[in-house]
Structures are given as structure tokens and as C-alpha cells.
Amino acid sequence: MPLDMLERKKVPVAEVASASRLERKAYFPTLIYQFDVEDSHHLNKSLIDLTYAERESGVAVNKSNTAELGSWHSATNLHKKAAYEPLLKEVNTALSGISEELGYAKDHILKVTSMWSIINPPGNGNRAHVHPNSLWSGVYYMQAPENAGQIEFIDPRTIMIMHQPKFETKKKRPRDTWTKVNYKPVPGRMVIFPAWLYHSVDTNMSKEKGRAGDRMIISFNINQVKR
Fold first, then answer.
1. Cross-sheet strand order for the sheet of 108-120
2. Fewest CB atoms less than 10 Å from the CB: which of 30, 102, 122, 217?
């Protein structure tokens, strides 16, 4: 910066020199991937029909969902059913990109090892949880009316929650300083995140009536397996 500009801005030369030596490097990041399926309308319609059929079969699991309020969670073996192959194809495309970007071993692949669907009618959400015994986890949105409930990821560094620094008020904080992040559900969108990352789902506050108010997703766990 020219000296005349420093004088006009009243910035000491020493301060500018000090700032020019300041270098920030980010280590140990928490990675979250987003993947949008192209022309997802027909895929979503098929998955919605399959999901309601699964629910009508009478099979249900109670995990992080609020079953006592009407939330429904399917069995976790959907990845073994041929009807879900179109979705698995999209998931595998995303996983291939992640493996390539992170430099994973070529003799291994990322593979879906469990998969399930959830229907959250208005008034339902998912309690904070993690997915043990997996490397990555993911969620695909097939139906998400307005105010259906965002997924929230929580900073895994406990110390950052227990003892937070003070920030300037009324000023947007840098992303690196956030202690939680929310993703709005969008039909046709997939979010893939570390299986150890705590996450929850806000209560579905949709005003839509009947099935149109349901928040519908398919979730899956991922591991690295030998080709």
C-alpha cells in the first residue's frame, strides 16, 4: 500500500507490516458435502410411493425419530432392494467424487451399507444423534414442504461450545467460528457428512394438509470396502 494512502487512512506502517505477516491455515476440518440430483422429479415420485408402501407393510423401527408423535422409520435394508437402485446410482456418483477428492485408496470404494426411509408428519423431528460403525452418513430429500424442519449439525469440538469467545455484535461471524450449521431440506438434494458428527432435525412445522405436509427422506450409512 503506498505511503500516501496509509497517511490518508491513518493506519500505522508497522500495523500494515504486521498484518502482511499474518497467515492463517485451517487444519482438522469437518467436511459436509452437498449433491443435487438432476431432474429429480420422477425419482422423488417413485421414492415417495415406495416409502408409503413400506410404511403400510407394518415394519417400523424407533431410533432418533419421535415415533410416539407419529414419526415413522423403516427397516435399514432398503439398499438391498432393486427398487432403490436409481437412488443408489446417484449416491454412488457422489461417493465416487468424494473418494477422488480426498485421495482414498483406489483398491477400496465407498459403499452404502445400510439405508432407510423416514416420514416426519407435522409436529415431528429427530433427536440429536450420531451413526456408529460408519465412516460417512447421508440424507436424501424426496419431499420437504416449507418449514418442514432443517437438519442441524453441531460443532464436534466440545471446548468451542463450553468456552466461546466474544464477537462483535450485529456483525456476521466468519463461517470458521460457527458452533452449529443448518441445512434447509430441498427435494432432490443429498447431504453427506461424517458419521460421527452430531446432528438433529427441527420439528416439522408445515401447514400443509395430509400427506403433502410430510417431511420425507431416505438416509444411509457408508463404509469403505475392498473392491
1. 33-36, 189-194, 136-143, 215-226, 108-120, 72-73
2. 102
Exposure on the CB side of residue 169, measured as CA atoms within 13 A: 0
Q: Grid cell 410416539 — which residue?
A: 68
**63 contact partners, CB below 8 Å, separation of at least 6:** 73, 129
- Enter the C-alpha cell of residue 4: 500516501
- From first to last of its 227 residues, the chain has per-residue pLDDT tens of 444 443 445 545 555 555 578 898 989 999 999 999 999 999 999 999 999 999 999 999 989 999 999 999 999 999 999 999 999 999 999 999 999 999 999 999 999 999 999 999 999 999 999 999 999 999 999 999 999 999 999 999 887 778 888 899 989 998 888 989 999 999 999 999 999 999 999 999 999 999 999 999 999 999 999 99
Q: Is 39 exposed, middle or buried (0-12, 13-18, 19+ CB in 10 A)?
A: exposed
Domains and CATH numbers, the chain: 38-158+177-226 (2.60.120.620)
Distance from C-alpha of 187 to C-alpha of 223, rounded to nearest angstrom: 25
∠ at Cα 186 (174, 93), nearest 5°?
A: 90
C-alpha cell recorded at residue 107? 483398491
Beta pairing, strands 126-129 & 136-143 = unpaired
